[in-house]
Amino acid sequence: xxxxxxxxxxxxxxxxxxxxxxxxxxxxxxxxxxxxxxxxxxxxxxxxxxxxxxxxxxxxxxxxxxxxxxxxxxxxxxxxxxxxxxxxxxxxxxx
Length: 95
Hints:
The chain has one domain (22-94). 83% of the residues lie in helices and 0% in strands. It has helices at 3-16, 25-47, 50-75, 79-94. By secondary structure, the protein is mostly helical.
């Protein structure tokens, strides 16, 4: 969308008081999803034998890389990249 339409839509939304907003429950849902993912991955990595952990982590990180690259540069959702990076760092600290 060219710049003129963006500015026109922005002004129209301001005049109509029609703003985008984030529901209050979405922060709790994000935290719950991250915590659930940490528990699931933690359990899987504890159950797997060490010989299978490397391929599992390699497949998981490459899949996350391509998924997050697509989100970051197509849908501009870079905050998810930070969440998964922190998740990865927390797992590395544990082992």
